[in-house]
Amino acid sequence: MTRSYDSLILHVMSGTGNSLRAARWLADLFGPGGATIVRIAKSYDAPPAPDRNSMTGFVFPTHGFTAPWAVIRHAMRIPRGTGSDAFVVATRAGTWLGFLLPGLSASAMFVTAFLLMLKGYRIKGLRGLDMPSNWTALHWGMSPKNAQRIIDRARIDIERLAALIFSGKTHFVSINNFVELVGGIALANISAGYLLIGRFALAKLFYANWKCTSCGLCARECPFGAIRMMGTDPKLPYWTFACESCMHCMGYCPEKAVEASHPLAIAMFYVGTFSLAAALGAWIIRLQPGLSGIGAGPGGAFVRSAVNYAYVLVSFFLVYVLFYYLVRIPLVNRLFTYLTLTHYYRRYREPGIGGKDFTEGG
Ligand SMILES: Cc1cc2nc3c(=O)[nH]c(=O)nc-3n(C[C@H](O)[C@H](O)[C@H](O)COP(=O)(O)O)c2cc1C
Ligand code: SF4
Ligand code: SF4
Fold first, then answer.
1. C-beta 184 within 6 A of ligand 1
2. What is d(CA 223, CA 242) in angstroms, rounded to the nearest whole number?
3. What are the pLDDT digits (tens) for 223-233?
4. Upper half-sphere CA count for residue 56 (Cβ side, 13 Å)
5. Could you tell me if residue 351 is inside a domain?
6. Could you give the count of Cα atoms lying within 13 Å of 339 in the half-sphere of its Cβ?
7. Which ligand 3 atom sits nearest the alpha carbon of residue 244?
């Protein structure tokens, strides 16, 4: 392959290894010595600044039909592109049903590409890449055989993409990108909801079942420092709002102890959907009927939304703290675990990527 660039800087987020696998393929295809992999994680060490002869790539999973918050934040932080070239690969949830059912990255690539353009990069390629779905909080993990089928096809897609963009050509126009664009526009409100609320709710569904040995591996390997080992005898992992739901802890816990609780999801739904602003408003009007006109108009709507938003986050936090202490009681832990579907699900991780690949970089 002819190479039009001297160096390749790959910015990579990965929970269960799919995006890291794709990034490593790209680095190999670029050729020896030319590629640097920068991890998108809690800690931010300023990556090398690109020059005119370097290519920058973003490779990350799709979450909620868009780019994870960590990727958006990272794209806003990196050095300016000053006219250098860039591309975006969003891995997405492929499923094998005797044929490949593609996932939908929707706005994931476009949001990231737009931010890169604002930072002075010239976008040369966009690609949604089907890898096995890793969302095992939601569904059963794929069988190793079917996962391998999808990974083998993804490798071919990456080779095609690399042949184009590393030789200086572009990759924009495809049926795949057209479907993603339409999906991105149609699902924009779901993606906004995911970034504003969904990801915080998902973070607070995780807990450790009774098999947890307090080894602390999940806390050490979480790319976003979102797990705290709390309590004494036993110390158990506690999930903070910094969690990006990347599924790393769930996929790599040696005891298969990380669960995402379904009963807790139902409780959070009921507590979270109670409208505090409406209840407060009705209560004030009952006390002072003369104030019934207050709060009408756009200003009032904004205040009501802000009150509700704060209420939802605080309610998630409080319900989770209560839950965390309840599941420290062995009998309660067993009860919740047997009622939680993830207890029966297979986990997923990319077959060639081990836990060490996340802590040792590259
Ligand atoms: C919380 C969450 C949300 C997801 N949302 C989507 C989605 O909207 N569309 C999609 O195609 N895949 C979605 N996926 C699947 C992942 O994007 C996909 O499996 C990806 O390859 C995982 O990459 P990683 O192992 O590098 O983290 C989601 C996965 C998770 C955990
Ligand atoms: S949940 Fe798993 S990885 Fe985390 S401390 Fe418990 S056993 Fe270790
Ligand atoms: S807590 Fe688990 S799911 Fe959340 S970001 Fe960390 S490793 Fe990923």
1. no
2. 10
3. 999 999 999 88
4. 28
5. no
6. 13
7. 5
Q: What is the pLDDT of residue 303?
A: 77
**Burial (Cβ within 10 Å: 0-12, 13-18, ≥19) of residue 147:** buried
- Of the pLDDT bands very low, low, confident and very high (cuts 50, 70, 90), residue 291 is low
pLDDT in tens, 33-58: 789 999 999 988 888 889 889 999 99
Which numbered atom of ligand 2 lies nearest the CA of 229? 5
Residue 104 CA, ligand 1 centroid: distance in Å? 9
Note whether 89 and 226 are same-domain residues: no
Q: How many residues does the chain have?
A: 362
Looking up residue 89, the CATH number of its domain turns out to be: 3.40.50.360
Per the structure, the complete domain to which residue 18 belongs is given by: 7-191
**Within this chain, do residues 63 and 122 fall inside the same structural domain, yes or no?**
yes
Please identify, among 191, 209, 236, the residue that sits at the C-terminal boundary of a domain. 191
**Residue 173: is it exposed, middle or buried by C-beta count within 10 angstroms (0-12/13-18/19+)?**
exposed
Domain count within the chain: 2
> Do the domain assignments include residue 240?
yes
Atom index in ligand 3 nearest the CA of residue 239 equals: 1
- pTM beyond cutoff 0.90: yes
Q: Same structural domain for residues 20 and 145?
A: yes
